[in-house]
Amino acid sequence: MVAIHSAVVALLPLIPSALGQTCTNIAPVNAATFAPGYEGRVVVNGLKGPRGLIFDIQGNLLTSEQSAYGVRYIQLTDNGGTNICVKSQKQLIADSSLNHGIALSANGKKLFASSKSTVYSWDYDGSTGTVSNKKTVITGMSTSGHATRTLLVPKSQPNILLVQVGSNGNLDTGAAQPSSGRSQIRIFKLADIDAGPKAYTTGEILGYGIRNNVGIAEDPHGGIFSVNNGMDDMTVSGKDVHNTNPCEELNYHGRINDTSSAERGKSYGYPTCHSIFDPSVLPSPFNTQFKVGDTITNGASSAACTRVAPKLCFPAHTAPLDLKFNAAGSAAYVTFHGSWNRNPPDGYRLSRVAWNPQTGQPVANVTSGAGAAENIMVNANNNAGCPNRCFRPAGLAWSPSGKLFLSSDTTNEIWVIGGAN
Question: Where would one find the signal peptide in this protein (predicted)?
Answer without folding.
Answer: 1-20
